[in-house]
Design brief:
This protein is of the alpha/beta class. The chain contains eight helices and twelve strands. The relative contact order is 0.13. One of its GO terms (molecular function) is phosphorelay response regulator activity.
Length: about 220
Amino acid sequence: MRILLIEDSYRLAQSLTKGLSREGFDLDAFPTARAGVDAFSALNYDAILLDLGLPDQDGLEVLGHLRRRRTDVPILILTARDSIESRVMGLDAGADDYLVKPFAMIELAARIRALLRRPGQPLATLLTIGNTQLNSAARQVTVGGSIVHFSPREIRALELLMRREGQVISKEILEDNLNGLGKNRSQNSIEVLVFRLRRRLQHCESDCRIHTLHGIGYMIKER
């Protein structure tokens, strides 16, 4: 299960990434509202963990924005605001659950599992551009009906691009989604990855074409 964390505390984000990974969750962590919303727009997440005290925007405003974009994704607020009024405001604004810091990792994991058991709208798992289809659940790519091998990082990058077909994805968004918050990054790691992905798509005669917009980012379109 893929979880989006919007939390400005680097230490807490690292702790949650490690702890929830042991519980079987794949966590993408972002320290600002803007970065988190961009990631939310690019990928389908199974649940969102949202801090209210973000540096660039109040968490309740972010919550309202996320709810206007998608009504089905579970959102759990993680915050130090422990008053009854704050809890009521968060739940009334659209949160599915509210957990006050500090909390136990096992309780957070249990709450996430409970939220994911609730019925909701199914997420789109099949992404198609021309003769190329990516099954995000099976992590499998087919071109013209034949399975083509891609590395896990290549599949993740391809998914990110295909979910925004015809739109520009910035290098920063790719870096954050592929490398994770706080991971070491080489200056040209994204360029190398996109180069390999583009060459592999061309080799298997995919209809997908990745365009580079220098200084801006990347965009995928049908040739």
